[in-house]
Amino acid sequence: MLSGMLLIFAALIVGYLIPISKKSTLDLIIKSTSRLVYVILALMGLSLSAVDNLSENLQLISKYTAVFFLVIGACNLICLPLVDRFYGIQADSKQSKLPLLSMAIESAKLVLVIAAGLVVGLFFPVNVHIVETTSQWILLLLLLLIGIQLRNSGLTLRQIILNKHGMLIAAVIVASSLIGGVIAAKILGISVIKGLAMSSGFGWYSLSGILIGGAYGPIWGGASFLIELLRELLSLILIPLIIGTRPLTAIGYAGATALDFTLPVIQTTGGVRCVPIAIVSGFILTLLNPVLMLFFISLAS
Hints:
Number of strands: 0
Keywords: Membrane, Transmembrane, Transmembrane helix
Mean pLDDT: 84
CATH topology: Na+/H+ antiporter like fold
Strand content: under 5%
Protein name: Lysine exporter LysO
Low-confidence stretches: none
InterPro entries: LysO
Radius of gyration: 19 Å
CATH architecture: Up-down Bundle
Number of helices: 13
Order of helices and strands: HHHHHHHHHHHHH
Helix content: over 70%
Pfam family, one: Lys_export
Distance between the termini: 6 Å
Transmembrane segments: 6-24, 36-54, 66-87, 108-131, 137-155, 167-190, 202-221, 233-255, 275-297
Number of domains: 1
């Protein structure tokens, strides 16, 4: 397993070393990444259909999801308000109508893709070995493309270092999430290392579900996916409600999605001042997600 994890991490690094200047090429990479995510999530559904005692294991997925989501979320929301209290900023709160329903539907589509793969696997014979091998190769390509996007995101190291609020938010999210992972592991009676790996998603549901599923199997992969998806969906509700009084808490809870999916909500409800903070915190958490997750997975191998 360790060699596989190193190969996965190497794909991300190689991608990060590739500079792309042509906008049309970057756009094509972004579209390709989105399509690959749908493909690999469908394959995850196929793998899940091959699990023995499926109905019982679906209950396990729900149990793991609920415990990790509630405990990690509680730890995040206990710690983040302290950042607002001691290092707070003033948001330009606005009351704008946002297409929150349509954004939630976009997230829900990913769940439907897994469900579709599950249904297909239940009605047609599935060669698990072929599915897993295909998933591994697509994952390598996906991480290569993600690395390219991170390299060409427009953020320099100087910009990241100089934005203390973004760095502070990211540090608090990482620390409080890992603490939550340890507590959840104790509650569920699983290894602390697995709990730390499960808590390193930071809102990036697609990659988290894929990496955890590849390491621990489709049950844990499905739980990891749902944990981070629920974070994103709750962020869509939470950000407009609290960004006026606790902007850093709102940005922080969005996790890695503050870099992309929830950024329009942050900008519209919190004002332009919140945007650099959201981009930097989201960028750092996006970068740390595969690094920390692969690190903890390698410790258990």
